[in-house]
Amino acid sequence: MKLIYRDKEWELQGRRRVRDAIKEIGLMPQTVLAVREGKLLTGDLMLEEDDEVKLVAVISGG
User: Which residues neighbour 16 within 8 Å (Cβ) at sequence distance 6 or greater?
Assistant: First the structure.
C-alpha cells in the first residue's frame, strides 16, 4: 500500500489496519485522518496492498 502525507510517500507490503500503518511510518494515529478515494477511513479498517491512502493533518483550536 502507499501512504501519502504532505510531500512524503511510503510503500508498505502486506495487509494491516489503518492505525498500524500510520504507526509504522512514525506518525501518531490521533494526529492524522486517513482518506481513500475521497472517503474517511476508521483506524480499525483493514488496508490491502493495492490501496493508496492520503493522510491529512488534524487541525484543532479555538
Answer: 1, 24, 46, 47
